[in-house]
Write a structure and sequence with these properties.
The complex is a heterodimer of chains A (about 210) and B (about 220). By secondary structure, chain A is α+β, with helices and mostly antiparallel strands. Chain A has two domains: about 1-40, no CATH class; about 40-200, Butyryl-CoA Dehydrogenase, subunit A, domain 3. Chain A contains seven helices and seven strands; from the N terminus they run ββββαββααααβαα. A three-stranded antiparallel beta sheet of chain B has the order 6-5-7. Chain B has a two-stranded antiparallel ribbon with strand order 1-2. Classes of the chains: A alpha+beta (about 210), B alpha+beta (about 220). Chain B: This is Paraquat-inducible protein A.
Chain lengths: ~210, ~220
Amino acid sequence: MRAIDAGILICTECHELNRQEEGSDEQVCTRCGALVHPRRPNSLMRTWALLLTSAILYIPANLLPIMTISSLGKGDPSTIMSGVIVLVQHGMFPIAAVVFVASILVPTFKLVGIALLLFSVQRRQPLSARQRIIMYRFIEFIGRWSMLDIFVIAILVAIVNFGRIASVEANLGAVAFASVVILTMLAAVTFDPRLIWDNTESDDDHE
Amino acid sequence: MPDPVDTSKVSELPLDALVACHECDLLMRKPQLGLGEKAQCPRCGYELYAHRHNVVERSLALVIAALLLYIPANFLPIMKLNLLGRSSEDTVWSGVLGLYHTGMSGIAVVVFLCSMGIPLLKLACQLAVLLSIRWDIGRSYGLLLYRIYHHLRDWGMLEVYLMGVLVAIVKLADLAELSLGLGLACFVGLLLTQVLLEVIMSPHQVWQALSGEDEHAGH
């Protein structure tokens, strides 16, 4: 049985149970004072909006250079992908794999994964609740790791600072990329995981 | 594992005999936990709550340790680079400044928040919450601060930053002479303390202590 069916609301912040009050729109948690809702309001619409914005920004994030490495007056702008290729050419495979996963695979997987989650919750298909919850937890866990490239740029800008001999400068692609990461993280936060289980009462309720 | 309740009478049970899963909304009878045990949702596997001993004392010790490490971790050099007889140093803070001075102030703010600002705010919230439980003062502010802490949680990214340091080290290692600094050790220490703190400071017990439901959490 779901808590919502018993007229009980769970606080999203402190997880305290609250009895649903009749006819009140804005009920606050008896313990921590946060607003409690049966389900997060407009969860799907908000998640869609954030997802679409990040999908649009995803294009400049991958096409524009994220940083320029200049040495002896010669500038060499690099995009996310070209950074990975340079690492492979230098034979640094493990670190190339880490960067590839964090900056290319994970953002792509998150965009596709959140879209799939939203589709399957709205259409009640094609994933089982268990697959959806694994996907949700994975997206929630992995999201932060895409900030890796941004931190690498920050470190390189600070340390490779030898004037005309060698220097590193951040470019607009980095702004777009950081926005994609932040927006997809926000999308994962606004998505209410309880929706995953709402259409699946018979699915795997009892194990 | 807790029992899912199916009888229609469940809505008449008192609320403190029940627990609902935060992630899938399954309603269950609340299990009694011994020290060191934890309860998981039988449907989706989410950890409902854990019961640990001396939560407040152990967490306080860790918060203070983390705060002591915070300044050296962020302001001592993480690494030094030598190129053609010139050398430069990198700290977490100089990374933020470097981005700011090259006109990327947006990114500088993001990096500052994720690697310095939010981790410090999280520690400050945790310290205030623990002290409010320990000294039994300002519980309502404690509740508010602990709510803020939960909203900040995902946005402190020390472990990702450490991975960034590793990537930078590998990228620079064969270009120039590189040496690691004391700041890196402090940063790793700060990260480890914070991870341990997340494990030990079990939210369920802190919420209960803050609302005065659990008399024993502070002792």
